Amino acid sequence: MGGMTTPPGPRSVKISDDERGAWTSDRPRANRPPRPRDISVRSRILRPADRLRYSPGSLLVIVSASAAERDRFAKRVIEDKGAIFSLDKVRALLAGRVPEADVEDRARQLLDAAVAKRLEAGESVVLLAEGVHPEAREVMVRMAAAAERPRHLILLEIPRDQVPEEDRATINELRRALDAGELGQEGFQTVLRLGGAAVSELKRIVFRPPPRED
Q1: Pairing mode of beta strands 59-64, 151-156
Q2: CA-CA distance, 179 to 125, in Å (whole number)?
Q3: Gap between the Cα atoms of 2 and 26, Å rounded
Q4: What is the number of alpha carbons within 13 Å of residue 68 lying toward its C-beta?
Q5: pLDDT of residue 118
Q6: Residues near 89 by beta carbon (within 8 Å), at least 6 away in sequence
Q7: Which of 55, 100, 139, 141 could, after both became Cys, cross-link 187 (CB 3.0–4.6 A)?
Q8: Among 155, 157, 163, which residue's Cα sits nearest to residue 197?
């Protein structure tokens, strides 16, 4: 994974590419499911720029307390629109095609399968996270880790008085963990918090290798 560069003029960022418990006996514990794989990494905090470059085949998770702002942002800045995935998108595709009671489970199954297929093929994925809780992104991050793909997160801020009351504590904790460099514990190698004027200043997010130096 390459470093972040800030040349004069327009700024550009280049982003390149078992846990054990306290059980003291050597005997296996009966009826205990295996512990999840430890996917923690060292996390690097990026600074806002007008253009972001991620390695091809990366997973980029966009988190926001506003689904509408999240969707508008992704539509505006993501160059490869085919890489964008969300539960809302899959639900809309299933509406009227499967019984309403089955839409939620079926949507999650299809989303998981589509993202897994792209990651295993080395193709980029932009996940518009459902809500702001860690559980909404954990499955995809673990998929990307299993496929040995880079993992990145962008927290898209909205005015604090517009954050739903039920999400405020979670957003505050996410913001604190991001600023402290603690989201590496979730498996994210880079993180970026975007708010205010920095949101509109970001013009494009691309998944391309760094330009060749002749």
Answers
A1: parallel
A2: 24
A3: 42
A4: 3
A5: 96
A6: 128
A7: 141
A8: 157
C-alpha triplet 94, 125, 211: angle, nearest 5°: 150
pLDDT, mean of each 10-residue run, the chain (214 residues): 47 53 44 77 95 97 97 97 96 92 94 96 97 94 96 96 95 96 96 96 94 67
Tokens representing residue 12 in the block: 């550009």
Strands laid side by side in the 204-207 sheet? 13-15, 51-54, 204-207
Rounded Cα distance between 168 and 18, Å, is 33
14 DSSP β-pair partners? 53
What order do you get walking across the sheet with 125-128 strand by strand? Answer: 44-45, 190-194, 151-156, 59-64, 125-128, 84-85
- Quick one: tokens of 210? 């760094």
Give the chain's count of helices (H) and strands (E): 6, 9
Which residue reads 């008085």 in tokens? 161
Q: At what angle do helices 135-146 and 103-120 cross, to 10 degrees?
A: 30
Which is nearest to 49 in space by CA: 80, 78, 7, 1?
A: 7
Residue 64 near residue 73 (C-beta atoms within 8 A): yes
pTM: predicted TM-score of the whole model, two decimal places: 0.83
- Please tell me what DSSP assigns to residue 77: H
Place of tokens 């905090």: 45
Q: What pLDDT, on a 0 to 100 scale, did the predictor assign at position 18?
A: 39
